[in-house]
Specification:
The chain is 50% helix and 18% strand. By secondary structure, it is of the alpha+beta class. The strands form two sheets. Strands 1-5-2 form a three-stranded antiparallel β-sheet. The protein has a two-stranded antiparallel sheet with strand order 3-4.
Length: 107
């Protein structure tokens, strides 16, 4: 599976608001089984810029990839964190990732 060092390195890259392409996941060493389980098609919303998906600098209607929040949740569980408990009060996706990172740091 993943070494602790690799899992920590991947977690450090997660922000909670990104979608990683399948190719990027592979380049970063995300296990293929996780990619298959977590990859999904995401659809842009254009009412607010925060809901629009960009690939490069261009907005796209749909994007197939892995939510870095879902990846962070998987990594947190692998690193022994009770992800549901530590993210229970987090209101945003980035806040959930921060809570996971803090719990891992606190050990």
């Amino acid at each position: 599976m993943l070494s602790r060092i690799r899992a920590l390195a991947l977690l450090s890259q997660c922000e909670g608001a990104e979608i990683w392409s399948v190719e990027h996941c592979r380049e970063q060493g995300v296990p293929e089984e996780w990619i298959e389980e977590l990859a999904d098609a995401f659809e842009s919303g254009y009412a607010h810029d925060r809901d629009t998906i960009y690939y490069g600098n261009a907005p796209v209607n749909q994007f197939h990839g892995v939510s870095d929040l879902h990846l962070a949740e998987r990594l947190g569980a692998l690193l022994g964190i009770d992800v549901a408990r530590v993210t229970a009060t987090a209101l945003t996706r980035p806040a959930k990732v921060r809570a996971i990172k803090e719990a891992v740091e606190e050990g």
